[in-house]
Amino acid sequence: MTSLQLEHKTLPVEDVPLAYKIEIEEYPEDEAATLESLTFRQANAPELFQGCYVDGTLVGYVVSTLASGNHLTHDSMSVHEPQGNAVCIHSVCVAKAYQRRGIARAMLKEYLERVKRLNQASSSSESSGAGHQERVLLIAHKELTGLYSGAGFEMVGLSEVVHGPDAWYEMVYHF
Ligand SMILES: CC(C)(COP(=O)(O)OP(=O)(O)OC[C@H]1O[C@@H](n2cnc3c(N)ncnc32)[C@H](O)[C@@H]1OP(=O)(O)O)[C@@H](O)C(=O)NCCC(=O)NCCS
């Protein structure tokens, strides 16, 4: 558990460029989201873009959109289907200076609580459609699967997504 005082909140639109700065610093060039895709996600599913702040500074975030189906595909990474029953996580990212201090672990715990709250609130009138999710899906390289299994995700197996030289593993969290 981190000793840092973390504040988790819905990322405000003005912080999207700050998230993008962290994204391109931390992800390999061919895996990083563009500013356009982060802007699209914030605009279409704002409550699924969760920022993590230390003393008012953005240090990490988790961002998803919704899709239908049991598996994460290339297509589900690039759309937002408001009636989709799966939360597809695109990025879990922490700024370098704050890594290995338990922030990703804390962000994931908070994020799953957030989706549970959205489900319970029966606020399905929200424009993004969040509020009826059955599962959370993500893909990760082998070395990071322990982070997600520690947060309660189960291994599905090799993902159908092929991108770059290293295999992707699909993981799922069921509500
Ligand atoms: C992956 C990432 C989000 C981890 O953030 P973090 O705040 O440093 O992670 P935590 O400190 O909460 O780590 C929790 C546990 O996850 C595992 N873990 C974290 N980073 C890891 C890494 N680089 N390699 C292997 N295991 C790792 C460890 O088991 C760790 O526990 P430990 O520190 O007690 O050994 C961060 O390194 C990052 O932003 N990387 C670039 C973007 C990325 O690859 N995101 C994941 C996409 S699937």
TrEMBL record:
PROSITE patterns: GNAT. Keywords: Acyltransferase, Transferase. It comes from the Eukaryota. SUPFAM superfamilies: Acyl-CoA N-acyltransferases (Nat) (SSF55729). Gene3D superfamilies: 3.40.630.30. Residues 6-175 form the N-acetyltransferase domain. GO terms for cellular component: cytoplasm. This is N-acetyltransferase domain-containing protein. It comes from Mortierella polycephala. The lineage of its organism: Eukaryota, Fungi, Fungi incertae sedis, Mucoromycota, Mortierellomycotina.
